[in-house]
Amino acid sequence: MSDLIKCPTCKTDYETQPDKCNNCGYPFNGTDMEKSHFVAHQIMKKGKISDTKDSIKRTRTILFVIAGFYIVIPFFKFANAQYGGLMIAMSIFIGLIFLVFGFTAKKKPFISIIIPLILLIIFYVIDAIIEPTTLIRGIVWKILFIGSMIYSLISIIESEKIKRESEHLATKDYK
Fold it and tell me: Which residues make Cβ contacts (< 8 Å) with residue 62, sequence separation at least 6?
């Protein structure tokens, strides 16, 4: 019985050495430079998928923080206002929406990030129209929240592209 040949990248077994791995595309008959180049690209692609997982985790935390702000802060801000009860109820409702998306972002990250991003931008624009000075207040947080969510969306798109291009990397999951 002959020894099986194992692909160094995806560990697929072959009885005879193919020109190229059917699973990941590793160039068995390539030069050392081609093989090294291929392995380096695979490592970078795996790293990108891993970074996407971390980015989604950070964005989930941000969604939970935003939910907390919308649920807790209004009790202090609107407690004595004329329409305080209504404002508190609306704010809690908005906070619960962000909370739900924070939980669902693990299973359906793209949709669970893009909808809150759009809502957050709409809230910031409406708030700025009503009271323009609110745009400046907390600007660092606003930039951090929006920037992180956009980064996560871009990262998800890039990872999905990598996974579509490679059957081997399609099995790597960031969810």
Answer: 144, 145, 148, 149
